[in-house]
Specification:
Radius of gyration: 12 Å
Structural class: mainly alpha
Helix content: 55-70%
Number of strands: 0
Order of helices and strands: HHH
Strand content: under 5%
Shape: globular
Distance between the termini: 20 Å
Length: 67
């Protein structure tokens, strides 16, 4: 899987950040990824980037634990 496989440019960037952190031997979690996102304060009109990342982590952990 590569960043260009994602439709949304934000998800492309997010995946690239996660990929680079892991390849360099670092953890990729909410705390390590958030500083690399950059100057985007709002993800949508309702959510900040931090809120979106927390929601994404919560949903993905539910999916991982169910299967």
């Amino acid at each position: 899987l590569e960043p260009h496989h994602f439709f949304d440019p934000f998800h492309q960037r997010l995946y690239s950040i996660v990929q680079n952190l892991i390849r360099s031997g670092h953890r990729a979690d909410l705390f390590t990824v958030h500083p690399y996102i950059g100057a985007v304060d709002q993800f949508t009109s309702e959510l900040t980037v931090g809120q979106y990342l927390r929601r994404l982590a919560t949903v993905s952990s539910r999916v991982a634990s169910c299967c």
